[in-house]
Amino acid sequence: MAKLDGHCLCGQIAYTSDAEPIMTAVCHCADCQRQTGTTFSLVVAVPRNQLRIQGTPKVFQTMGDDRGAPAYRHFCADCGSPIMSVLADIDELAWIKAGTLNDKSWLNPTLEVWADSAQPWLQAPAERRTFPRSPTT
Ligand SMILES: [Zn+2]
Ligand SMILES: [Zn+2]
Q: pTM for the whole thing?
């Protein structure tokens, strides 16, 4: 049985991963805000070579302010759901948009990035590791 599975709003794109998720993170970057149409992305990292995708997501490329490497934002061309992002400089991981998971009950983010562009009414708990921008810079 897959460790993790999910699908887009219309069901054209579905995925399963046999690997345990590596981490759950909140990203407040402006691109995630715009892509999701809301205030942040909640993402779950899984090894990309353990991820099986049904259907063909469309890919939109953005360039991060800090990373100097593209982010490939996979989404469903039919219903528009963001499915996952792959960062070109760490492309062994897929960052799944957690809202597409079938089971969200276990989600517990341990990391927040791009807190500099977080909405002021969103305060991370003190125990959560928080980075003002990308953790790699
Ligand atoms: Zn869809
Ligand atoms: Zn982001």
A: 0.94
